[in-house]
Amino acid sequence: MSQPKNIAIFISGGGSNARKIIEYSLVEDCGFKVAMLVASKPDAGGLLVAAEHNIPTLVLDRKTFRETPQLLSILKEFDIDFIVLAGFLWLVPTYLVQAFPDKIVNIHPALLPKFGGKGMYGMNVHRAVKAAGETESGPTIHFVNERYDEGNIIAQFSTPISPEDTAEKIAAKVLALEHAHYAKVVEEVLLSW
Ligand code: GAR
């Protein structure tokens, strides 16, 4: 097998997907290594996960992230090949999309193109799915462009929703699918290079 690719995981919150991806990367012959974890908040739970595994971390400053390409030199220093957004809630700036063409993926907790766009994240998505009376939901994994949730779709996984399911229940069902599939899909994308 060729050399594992170095990925950076970007998070804003609890980091349960980051944890799954890190754990997946530790299995023998995994096609990637988590070389860095980048957080938009100093209290993002995923920072603790990275610390547990001695993975270098970086906490972003919003203005610097948006307005200067400073981050690129840090990603270069860590030899990052690929970026995985896992609950990262800031819009990815143009300089980063251009520096990593089709090399940034995101997971969104609904079946895009439904329930995507600005403000559609976390429980907002699941409440909207519930309110719309959807009969299924599930995560979408897609490439990232300069617009929220609009890049080309790589994979979708769906679970039935019954009328009794609360938004919280829908969230739990969708998150279970994220945990089951995200790391594997990342590995498949990297292997297809
Ligand atoms: C996940 O459900 C992910 O799909 C969602 O945030 C959650 C992060 O959970 N992302 C978005 O809503 C992006 N629009 P985690 O921090 O436990 O991995």
Summarize the entry for a quick read:
By secondary structure, the chain is an alpha/beta fold.
CATH architecture: 3-Layer(aba) Sandwich
Using the CA coordinates, give the radius of gyration.
16 Å
CATH superfamily name? Answer: Formyl transferase, N-terminal domain
Q: Would you count the extended β strands for me?
A: 9
Q: Which percent bin holds the helix content?
A: 25-40%
In whole angstroms, the N-to-C terminal distance is 13 Å
Number of separate domains = 1
- Indicate the CATH class: Alpha Beta
Q: How many separate helices?
A: 7
State the secondary-structure class.
Answer: alpha/beta
Account of the 3D structure:
The chain is an alpha/beta fold and 193 residues long. It has a single domain (5-191), classed as 3-Layer(aba) Sandwich (Rossmann fold), CATH 3.40.50.170. 37% of the residues lie in helices and 20% in strands. The protein has seven helices and nine strands; from the N terminus they run E-H-E-H-E-H-H-E-H-E-H-E-E-E-E-H. It has helices at residues 16-25, 46-52, 62-67, 70-77, 94-99, 122-131, 167-191, and strands at 5-11, 32-39, 57-59, 82-85, 104-108, 136-137, 140-143, 153-156, 159-160. Strands 3-2-1-4-5-7-8 form a seven-stranded mixed sheet, with helices on one face. Helix 1 (16-25) links the parallel strand 1 (5-11) and strand 2. The protein is globular and about 50 Å long. The protein starts with a strand and ends with a helix. The model has no long low-confidence stretch (mean pLDDT 96).
